[in-house]
Amino acid sequence: MALIVQKYGGTSMGSIDRIKNVAKRVKRWHDNGHQIVVVVSAMSGETNRLIDLARQISTQPDPREYDQMVSTGEQVSISLLAMAIKELGVGARSFTGRQVAIKTDNAHNKARIESIDDRNIREQLDAGNVVIVAGFQGIDDEGNATTLGRGGSDTTGVAIAAALGADECQIYTDVDGVYTTDSCDLKSQKT
Prior knowledge:
Layout: E1 3-8, H1 16-31, E2 35-40, H2 46-57, H3 63-70, H4 72-87, E3 92-95, H5 97-100, E4 102-104, E5 113-116, H6 119-126, E6 130-134, E7 137-139, E8 145-147, H7 152-164, E9 168-172, H8 183-189
Parallel strand pairs: 1-2, 1-9, 2-6, 3-6
Antiparallel strand pairs: 4-5, 7-8
Helix pairs in contact: 1-4
């Protein structure tokens, strides 16, 4: 049995059907005897929608209020995925960055993770549940919501894997194929 952290991005979480597909994938790993922690992003386009709302109100939104608002997209994702996993007959529990206690500095919009309290995660894993954690967010010393900036959910996944001493950290992303070289190399190889 391995402890595995899986991270799913916004495209993987982009619709109810896609969330159900993620739930099926997570269930397969769980059914094979693994302890699973899943870190998710907001549904595709949701963070951009929230940012647009903030900019319609203010040309320079207050950083604290901005983080408070944009971190809500991940809360929707974790809850929907937990529901989908439970519908498949597997125990699941969702946690925000605050509930896990992902402690960050207070640099809103670009916070850095300082520590992760793994007690709630381990308690749920020991109870046989899949744990779903909101990526991209944490809390500062004053209890304010903070966000890690773009790509923050990947950072959250890797940081949680390190904090737990996970056997694997799997980052799932939707791409249009598997590449073995970048486009610059392809151009230079043409004759």
